[in-house]
């Protein structure tokens, strides 16, 4: 009986360790060839977006430094693959908020030990997301460039505009 309990406990731990998280994204964010998960934790944000309203991005590999985006009431993480050809997956973050359809899309890359913006925050409107116009992708025609797709208010209308920009 004791062996059966030990076996069941061991199998339970193995299955739990292999279970993918419900929230979070998988990627090789530090370029070491080993995949890790990135997660979001919301700090002090009420239903009406009152409070500090920060989102902490943290990692299953505790060697990777976490970083905070504010204001943000949670949001969606995206593995952007390796936009800048440094051998590491870059992270996109689309924050949730209580009002408005305008939200910046943040793009971060790991430089040695710190997460830094790869590009300026990209202004997006919900209509851009509804029309499946993702904010950033590698420019296949120009090495060292990305195509940034942004929402702009022009002549009393929301326009979706794409530009190729150089990254460092």
Shape: flat
Q: Which ranges are low-confidence, i.e. pLDDT below 50, for 5 or more consecutive residues?
A: 1-21
Strand content: over 45%
Mean pLDDT: 86
Radius of gyration: 19 Å
Main sheet specs: 5 strands, antiparallel
Number of helices: 2
Distance between the termini: 62 Å
Based on secondary structure, the structural category is: mainly beta
Count of strand segments? 12
Helix content: 10-25%
Helix and strand element order: HEEEEEEEEEHEEE
Give the tags.
168 residues, mainly beta, 4-stranded antiparallel β-sheet, 13% helix, flat
Task: Walk me through this protein's architecture.
With 168 residues, this protein is mostly beta strands. The protein has helices at residues 2-18, 126-130, and strands at residues 25-27, 36-45, 51-59, 67-69, 75-79, 91-95, 102-111, 114-117, 122-125, 136-138, 145-154, 157-166.
How do the strands and helices of this protein lay out in sequence?
Layout lengths: L1 H17 L6 E3 L8 E10 L5 E9 L7 E3 L5 E5 L11 E5 L6 E10 L2 E4 L4 E4 H5 L5 E3 L6 E10 L2 E10 L2
Antiparallel strand pairs: 1-2, 2-3, 3-4, 5-6, 6-7, 7-8, 7-9, 10-11, 11-12
